[in-house]
Amino acid sequence: ILNVEQSPQSLHVQEGDSTNFTCSFPSSNFYALHWYRWETAKSPEALFVMTLNGDEKKKGRISATLNTKEGYSYLYIKGSQPEDSATYLCAFISWGTGFQKLVFGTGTRLLVSP
Amino acid sequence: ETGVTQTPRHLVMGMTNKKSLKCEQHLGHNAMYWYKQSAKKPLELMFVYSLEERVENNSVPSRFSPECPNSSHLFLHLHTLQPEDSALYLCASSQGTGPFYEQYFGPGTRLTVT
Fold first, then answer.
1. In the predicted model, what is the mean pLDDT of chain B?
2. Is pLDDT of B77 > 70?
3. Of the candidates B92, B99, B104, which has its C-beta nearest A93's C-beta?
């Protein structure tokens, strides 16, 4: 059974703080890792799709790194804003499934106070 | 707006009822998915359709019956559900079923089984 762990479960920061969270996944049979952002009462929204060891992706103030050999990915938010408050989900795809069978973590819930 | 709509947004049904959840995507995608999120648990894949063919049934009980009449529409038919089936049901679509395609999610249907 594949296990995807995210930490911390929740995080409360002040506006302007930078923060980061971790996604851990099985290091064998890696195929791809997805990051999604899920605001309350809205739909999950894709942030990044990461595929290669050492990948770094950036979208505005949010960036992510990937280490497939040790099985982790970090998501960074620089200068957090209240609109960054959301649950951040990572999802792992293992080699050999033949299609997009995403295995999700339980997410990190971020609250940014003004 | 993600281009994926779901109806109804909320549904309360008794254990002997039959109801259907509907999903529609306006993105021209070829793959569609049903996910379940129970309280305190990660998003869990239920079904995958690629070009209207079911490619995955992730050990889902037969009281859940999916239908994909065309690449834009996906249904989840529900009958004789149990209270433990109460959850948020999310629909998603992607351009293809390869691991590098990000998924676009609908807002979900909150289902309560009484």
1. 93
2. yes
3. B99
Number of Cα atoms under 13 Å in the Cβ half of residue A32: 18
Q: Is A16 exposed, middle or buried (0-12, 13-18, 19+ CB in 10 A)?
A: exposed
Q: Which residue has the tokens 């948020």?
A: B88
Closest by CA position to A3, among listed A109, A74, A105, A107:
A105
Distance from CA of B101 to the nearest CA of A (A): 8
- Burial of B41 (C-beta count, 10 Å sphere; 0-12/13-18/19+): exposed
| pLDDT for position B19 | 95
What is the distance in angstroms between the CA of the first residue and the CA of the last residue of chain B?
A: 31
Tokens for A20? 């980061």
Bridge partners of A46? Answer: A36
Q: Tell me if A100 and B97 make a contact (CB, 8 A cut-off).
A: yes
| Rounded Cα distance, A67 and A80, in Å | 24
Q: Assess whether pLDDT exceeds 80 at residue B1.
A: no
Quick one: pLDDT at residue A98?
Answer: 63
A100–B99: do the CB atoms touch at under 8 Å?
A: yes
Distance CA B85, CA B65 (A): 13
| pLDDT of A104 higher than 90 | yes
Cα A34 from chain centroid (whole Å)? 7
DSSP A69: T
